[in-house]
Amino acid sequence: MKRFLPYLAVAFFASVPLWLQDQYFLHTLVVTGIFIIAAMSLNLLLGYTGQLSLGHVAFFGIGAYVSALTSLGFSLSIFGVQITHEPWPAVVGVILGTIIAGLCGYLIGKLAFRVRGAYFVIVTISFAEVVRLVSLNWVELTNGPLALPGIPPLTLGFEWTGFATLWGKGQNYYVVLATIVLAYVLIKRIVNSPYGRAMIALRENETLATSVGVSVTKYLVLAAVISGAMAGTAGGLYAHYIQIIDPMVFMFLNTVTMVIMVITGGKGTLAGPLVGGLIFGIAPVILRDYVGPEVQWILYGLLMILIVFVLPEGIVPAVERWFTRKTGNSAAKRSALVLESSKGARS
């Protein structure tokens, strides 16, 4: 049953646009799905290598801005040299945003992984703040606080087949769902590979892992590159779905949201960011029908505190432990019944 659970989950969520009538709720699912992708990327770094990045939103914002500028085009002067870029398709923008965010992850990984603990956290926060200030003050390129409006939506197809523009929420929903599935498969393959086992070894006992030949810098930088690239993909999808981007995308609350999704769902588990993301992405929408905005955030915080207090390891590990205990008890009971019946037969 556990083996088929991911397929059942994908089938269920694929059916949502077919019966869900509330377009605002569908919009919430799209935005939540984008942040789930970003949370999954953070989980690769936090959950499997044990490195807390509080500047992860920088990669998300870099992917958003690169994708937006690639599809909008720009013209700027650098040291007297005029650089003009004509608009490219939105899909190319998302790919470039993913690549550049991954390269930034490589650079930050090379620099930041020479330190550990609080120093690494400070480096990542500083990097996010630098990127935010660049987006705010480089007005010629980013339009500063006036934002970049009119970002074109994603298009799918080829010249010989024609292009389909993804204007609707349902269309974007399926693109985000497909990206989540691809990200899940990619992370699962990494975690189950020798690279993933090396990352987990570094998380559990870095000194012991190093003593048996595991390269700290190599595997931590690899995690930073993949994590940054995946967050850049989420940022690109966000820019083309919202169709406007400004420096507020780098606000610290977005990083906190990703961390909450990972911690409450269960860091170091494949399904943790998915479960945590759904709960904390949908909870405000459900609460808005019953309480005011101020009370919504209070209940939101209380829910987070309750989950962390009752389930300190996260929701997914607690459910897995409960399921294992139940199946173990059932197996033990069946064995006892078989043993009693065999004794009765011998007597």
Would you kindly provide a brief summary of this structure?
With 347 residues, this protein is mainly α.
Explain this structure.
The chain is mostly helical and 347 residues long. The chain has one domain (5-251). The protein has 14 helices and six strands. It has helices spanning 5-19, 23-49, 57-72, 90-112, 118-137, 139-142, 169-191, 194-204, 206-211, 216-242, 252-265, 272-287, 293-310, 315-346; strands spanning 74-78, 81-85, 148-149, 155-158, 162-165, 244-245. The longest helix is centred in the last third of the chain and has 32 residues, at 315-346. It is globular. 37% of the residues are buried. The mean pLDDT is 85.
What proportion of the residues is helical, as a percent range? over 70%
List the helices and strands in order: HHHEEHHHEEEHHHHEHHHH
Number of domains: 1
Q: Specify the oligomeric state.
A: single chain
Overall geometric form: globular
Write the layout of secondary structure elements.
Elements: H1 5-19, H2 23-49, H3 57-72, E1 74-78, E2 81-85, H4 90-112, H5 118-137, H6 139-142, E3 148-149, E4 155-158, E5 162-165, H7 169-191, H8 194-204, H9 206-211, H10 216-242, E6 244-245, H11 252-265, H12 272-287, H13 293-310, H14 315-346
Antiparallel strand pairs: 1-2, 3-6, 4-5
Helix pairs in contact: 1-7, 2-7, 2-10, 2-11, 2-12, 3-4, 3-5, 3-10, 4-10, 8-10, 11-12, 12-13
